[in-house]
Amino acid sequence: MLLFVPIWGLHKAGSWTSMDQEMYLQSVIDMMETYQKAFSEETILLVMDLEKVREFLPTPSIKVTIPVGTPRSALANTVSDLALSQNKICFEERGPEAFGIAYVATASPLRYNGELVGVLTSVTVNEKFEMIRNSSESLAASVEEMTATSNQLASGFSSINSEMDQLSSKSTALLQDIGAIQSIIGVVQELADTSNLLGLNAAIEAAHAGQYGRGFSVVANEIRKMANQSKDASNTIRTQLIDMQSRLNEINRFVETVKHDMAHHSESVKELDSAFEHIAVTANELLDRFGTDNRD
């Protein structure tokens, strides 16, 4: 906040005296309490001439006292000293490291008829800016962690989706193998039926042959027995394959459901990541505005 200090303009140019300059400085000192009330935050005010401190108006929050009469040399390299040396407004922002509270110091040269006669310095408590800065730094760090987590989630979703594709591919291959086995079982059952029919015909012929066909009848009965056993076994295998086929179809449906859900969650993570990026941009903008660089 820049302060407007009184300018004495009642004398003609070239007629200024040291008394006039002193009156000007005193008028600024007399107005210091009024100036201090104009600040929204607690503010220290200091008036210094070219050699020493003329007045110091403290504030409870900043535990600093500069006695009246303190020589300029004791304030070397402060904004007050720099403003006098450079004859221009100087600004400085500091964090809480030095005095336990953040502050902004502004030193405005006091000129009388164009001649530098002193400086008016304000030191304003900067708690709100420091709070915003700290919150921004914390927010930026949190967003960075959340972004890393969302990236890990996205990577995990991609990996799971790839594994689901492999599982689906393998279950499809198994279904194809089951189909091939069922075809083979169909052939086995046909052979069993044919063998059973041949065994039956052989048994009939053996019966016609009487005692001469007894041995042949035993063989025919064994053929029929083996044919029936083969048919029963193939039926059992077919039933088991049908059950496996049903379970694999269920697995495929489950895999497709999971893939669909994963795709949905992946999109949600992308939206979340986009939101994090927006928050990160906002946090960085706050840091750019209230960042640590402004403290130097």
Automatic annotation (TrEMBL):
GO terms for cellular component: membrane. Residues 121-296 form the Methyl-accepting transducer domain. InterPro entries: MCPsignal_dom. It comes from the Bacteria. This is Methyl-accepting transducer domain-containing protein. Gene3D superfamilies: Methyl-accepting chemotaxis protein. GO terms for biological process: signal transduction. Keywords: Transducer. It comes from Paenibacillus albus.
